[in-house]
TrEMBL record:
<keyword id="KW-0812">Transmembrane</keyword>
<feature type="transmembrane region" description="Helical">
    <location>
        <begin position="220"/>
        <end position="239"/>
    </location>
</feature>
<protein>
    <recommendedName>
        <fullName>Transporter gate domain protein</fullName>
    </recommendedName>
</protein>
<keyword id="KW-0472">Membrane</keyword>
<keyword id="KW-1133">Transmembrane helix</keyword>
């Protein structure tokens, strides 16, 4: 991005120099800088207002109530996360903040959710590392051939090398969790939901429209709800299809 923006600035300056419009370029740069500061101040006020309201909602128990309300959806989308795991709380907070259009408040919860999901994967790898080969056979872990039975489960508690079951040319990691450095199924699902999130109140867009003189800044609410509802529905269907495909 640094190269992209730097290249755009250089091209603009060169174009202005070749066409004798350097004064216009300088005026536009100063005007845009002033406008950027004004926009930042406006957005800081909006952010403070809605983040404060989110904190009030959290302290008053409203967020907890909403978290309980969406618990069935969380369980549906993340069936492998234990019901008492901290990741559920952070995922719920992120989804609620996104639905309310509070992208700033959603970011910290999203980062914490990813941290908790990574801890969950580490727990799965440790649990798998403690299993003996007899336990693996008993619990249904597949082996491709008799000579694979002589291979052991090593390193990080995941199926390594020849013990990985292959289907359609791809390696399927069984119950021991994903190898280190690879996003888990829950991480991918959460990221997709976060990107496509339903928004009832697109606070950012309303603030931008108000800043730039829109006659009706809130006119975007209806189309925004429709667009994000469709994107969220597609995301849910896609995640469940990929999850089912992965388990086949």
């Amino acid at each position: 991005m640094n190269f992209l923006w730097g290249g755009m600035i250089v091209v603009g300056i060169l174009y202005g120099a070749m066409n004798g419009t350097m004064q216009e370029v300088a005026d536009a740069a100063l005007s845009s800088a002033k406008e950027a500061v004004t926009l930042c101040i406006t957005m800081a006020g909006v952010m403070s207002l809605w983040t404060g309201l989110m904190k009030i909602a959290e302290e008053s128990g409203i967020v907890a109530g909403m978290t309980r309300a969406i618990a069935p959806f969380i369980r549906f989308m993340f069936p492998r996360i234990p019901s008492d795991h901290p990741a559920n709380q952070q995922i719920s907070m992120n989804i609620i903040a996104n639905v309310l259009g509070l992208g700033w408040a959603a970011t910290p919860a999203g980062l914490k959710a990813m941290e908790e999901l990574e801890k969950l994967e580490e727990e799965r790898r440790r649990d798998a590392a403690g299993k003996t080969e007899a336990d693996i056979i008993h619990n249904g872990w597949e082996k491709k051939s008799a000579d694979m039975a002589q291979s052991s489960v090593v390193q990080s508690g995941v199926v390594q090398g020849s013990t990985a079951h292959k289907k359609n040319g791809r390696c399927r990691w069984e119950r021991g969790g994903m190898p280190p450095g690879v996003a888990s199924n829950e991480m991918c699902t959460f990221l997709i939901l976060n990107i496509s999130s339903l928004q009832l109140i697109p606070v950012n867009i309303i603030a931008y429209r108000a800043q730039y003189g829109s006659v009706n800044p809130t006119a975007i609410v209806g189309p925004g709800i429709l667009a994000t509802a469709v994107s969220t529905a597609v995301a849910v269907v896609f995640c469940k299809m990929m999850d089912k495909k992965r388990r086949v």
